[in-house]
Specification:
This protein is α+β, with helices and mostly antiparallel strands. The protein contains 3 helices and 8 strands. The protein has a 5-stranded antiparallel sheet with strand order 1-2-8-3-6. A hairpin with a 7-residue loop joins strand 4 and strand 5. The two termini are 26 Å apart.
Length: 152
């Protein structure tokens, strides 16, 4: 869980260093590198934008095999049930509390699990695990940082 928070904002160059470090570790140390590079709500604010209509997706970095995407949320916003087209997906919950619903990866897409995810946690999902949806439960502004291994 990410608990150390500093108010210094991250520069684009620092973000690129973080992204390259992820690539070098084959994306398996996402949570550890978030801590090491001090990636959190405050440091991501310069890249953020919000809308009252739907959550916003901002691509922060991309290469031939991965993408780092910032999602900015307002109260009660949610995603549709979706897969990740064969990609690995890590989600860092930078600000706010969320509900994640996991669905079977079959024709019926049956709800198999609901979990509450708290600020600071990291989750992992592949299509083998199932499909999912996210809903922002907190009041005010929320933020998640998604790492996809293989660009979407």
């Amino acid at each position: 869980m990410i608990s150390e928070k500093k108010t210094k904002t991250i520069e684009k160059e620092e973000l690129n260093i973080f992204f390259e470090a992820l690539r070098e570790t084959k994306y398996e140390n996402y949570e550890g590198l978030l801590k090491k590079h001090n990636i959190n709500f405050e440091t991501l604010l310069p890249f953020a934008k919000w809308s009252g209509d739907t959550y916003q997706r901002i691509c922060l970095a991309k290469n031939e095999d991965s993408e780092l995407i910032l999602l900015c949320w307002n109260s009660k916003q949610k995603t549709a049930v979706h897969s990740h087209d064969g990609q690995k997906c890590w989600v860092y919950f930078a600000k706010g509390d969320f509900k994640e619903e996991l669905y079977a990866n079959d024709c019926e897409k049956k709800l198999v699990k609901t979990r509450n995810v708290k600020e600071g946690e990291v989750t992992f999902l592949t299509d083998d695990i199932g499909f999912h949806s996210l809903k922002y439960k907190s009041e005010g502004l929320g933020m998640t940082l998604h790492l996809y291994a293989n660009p979407i």
